[in-house]
Amino acid sequence: MMKRDECLKVLARHRSNEIVVAVWKAAHEWIHISPSDLNYTFVGAMGQGASHALGLAVGRPDKRVIVLDGDGSLLMNLGCLVTIANAAPRNLVHCLCENGVYETNGSVAVPGAGRVSFTGLAREAGYAKVYEFSLLEDWDRALDRILKEDGPIFVDLKVEMGEDYPEDFRRLYSIQHREAFRRALKNA
Fold first, then answer.
1. Please, which residues have CB within 8 angstroms of residue 45's CB and are 6 or more apart in sequence?
2. Which of the four pLDDT bands, split at 50, 70 and 90, describes residue 106?
3. 43 and 21 in contact (C-beta within 8 Å)?
4. With the C-alpha atoms ordered 40, 185, 60, 16, is the resulting torsion angle positive or negative?
5. Exposed/middle/buried for residue 148 (C-beta within 10 Å: 0-12, 13-18, 19+)
6. Which residue has the higher pLDDT, 115 or 150?
């Protein structure tokens, strides 16, 4: 199993100018690991990260969009898998940070933890490509190729909590950062 922040650091090393939609704990980590005006981050809308990423991918088909989702969040909106597959955005990479718990809510186990196959759900929903990684070096080796493939792509990252990053809600909800994202999206 991989540490989530280490997975995100690998993504940051491979990142060029992709839009990254990060939710919940990954959002708090991502703003420290890979600061960018092309980061679209939020908390408080559990289950909506993939839907926001789909909107961005459809609206900007010329840009690669990566969503950093959580298993608890995805369980709140499994219908997004079918919706994404149906829309078939070639530029969307849906990364699931699967840790088996609602981490922000006291690490309560998600329903079906360890039994649900998220890659199976994505495959059956119709995602073009589906991957699963539990070793950091495999994720690192495959990432450049994955970022060049046509999607929608689903990547299940088997993770556990890593380093503790400060929660910065002011940054996540900052009007200045929202405006910087809008400008970067317009000019990218």
1. 23, 52
2. low
3. no
4. negative
5. exposed
6. 150
The CATH number that applies at residue 16 is 3.40.50.970
Mean pLDDT of the chain: 92
**Could you tell me if 155 and 95 are in contact, meaning their C-beta atoms sit under 8 angstroms apart?**
yes
The domain of 22 spans 2-187
Q: Identify the three-state secondary structure at position 155.
A: strand
Our count of domains for the chain comes to: 1
pLDDT for 24-46, tens place per residue? 889 989 999 999 999 998 766 77
| Token pair recorded at residue 131 | 């991957």
| Residues 6+ positions from 20 with CB-CB distance below 8 Å | 11, 30, 34, 36, 38, 39, 40, 65, 66, 67, 68
